[in-house]
Model the fold of this input.
Amino acid sequence: MTVTTKIYKNNQTAVPSFMRKKFNLGDGDLIEWSIDEKGEPKISFRKKMKLEDIMGSVKLGYKTDSVELKKELYK
Done:
């Protein structure tokens, strides 16, 4: 399926609704634009990460206080 979108002032464009639904895209998600090895454009989508998404994913080897770390983060 091919859909055409227009580039507006300030180089803005809209993501077609079927793409937003298929890839569960919303506010804050990122669109990554690149050129592949054949010189063709490639578009990828990446969900915006929240602190809650990454908490606990790193092992430090020592105990920490997550409440204190979170307070420090938001200072």
Summary: Residues 44 and 73 are 30 Å apart (CA to CA).
